[in-house]
């Protein structure tokens, strides 16, 4: 009996130490994994892909309110943007109403929101951006409208029916006349829900005269991720613009 009493503490103590050491090693590994995930997510969000949600109906039926989308930030840096691309961009100035003041979040809530936004679970900056379809790129002459209500680009009428959201019996959107030449390194953008979109046409009195500087463009929207029943790619409908000549051609 005496020998059992003297050896038991010597065997129990190292076992407890091993368990404590195992817990700390597990916590360390979890911390490292989370840290790596945050860093990778930050790099992805900053340079590759970002998540946004759709707050308005200006792009219906291509995009619906509360759709969640992914935006490609990387590819356009090498290949540029094409007519038909659906793009997310920061307000060039005066397009959006002033944001209402919101009470400051506690530091812990701010940190949680930031972490969730890195992995695309939230899209807290969506309300600071807009999403539209590119109709004209730098140098394009864009005019509304011809006799049947079509927009022309460099003198060529474009048939936008594949993506326009028109009311039953409506063959073309309500005309909002304009005649512009898009500056280099800028875009002319319009919503697919043309009669309910405050786009380039309605911002010609702003400092950028309705044009979106390329520096304000976040990237090209390419995928609907939520809700699941709408999961799929976002069509650029580039065939609509296939017959448009290069600016100044002819």
From TrEMBL:
Catalytic activity entry: Cleavage of hydrophobic, N-terminal signal or leader sequences from secreted and periplasmic proteins
Alphabetical UniProt keywords: Hydrolase, Membrane, Protease, Transmembrane, Transmembrane helix
EC assignment: 3.4.21.89
Alphabetized Pfam families for the sequence: Peptidase_S26
GO CC terms: plasma membrane
GO biological process: signal peptide processing
Keyword hit for Transmembrane: yes
Parts of the chain that traverse the membrane: 25-44
Top-tier EC class: hydrolase
UniProt xrefs under SUPFAM superfamilies: LexA/Signal peptidase (SSF51306)
Localization terms from the record: Cell membrane; Membrane
Name by which UniProt lists this protein: Signal peptidase I
Species, as recorded: Microbacterium laevaniformans
Gene this protein is translated from: lepB
């Amino acid at each position: 009996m005496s020998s059992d009493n003297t050896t038991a503490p010597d065997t129990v103590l190292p076992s407890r130490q091993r368990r404590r050491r195992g817990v700390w090693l597990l916590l360390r590994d979890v911390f490292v994994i989370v840290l790596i995930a945050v860093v990778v997510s930050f790099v992805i969000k900053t340079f590759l892909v970002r998540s946004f949600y759709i707050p308005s109906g200006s792009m219906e039926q291509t995009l619906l309110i509360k759709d969640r989308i992914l935006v490609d930030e990387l590819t356009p840096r090498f290949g540029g943007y094409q007519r038909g691309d659906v793009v997310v961009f920061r307000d060039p100035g005066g397009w959006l109403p002033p944001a209402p003041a919101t009470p400051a979040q506690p530091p812990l809530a701010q940190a949680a929101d930031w972490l969730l936004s890195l992995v695309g679970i939230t899209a807290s900056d969506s309300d600071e951006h807009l999403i539209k379809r590119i109709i004209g790129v730098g140098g394009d002459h864009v005019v509304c409208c011809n006799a049947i209500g079509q927009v022309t680009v460099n003198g060529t009428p474009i048939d936008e029916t594949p993506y326009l959201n028109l009311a039953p019996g409506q063959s073309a959107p309500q005309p909002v006349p304009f005649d512009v030449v898009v500056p280099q390194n800028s875009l002319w953008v319009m919503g697919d829900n043309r009669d309910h979109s405050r786009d380039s046409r309605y911002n010609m009195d702003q400092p950028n005269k309705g044009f979106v500087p390329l520096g304000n463009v976040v990237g090209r929207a390419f995928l609907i991720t939520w809700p699941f029943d709408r999961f799929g790619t976002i069509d650029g409908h580039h065939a609509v613009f296939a017959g448009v000549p290069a600016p100044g051609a002819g």
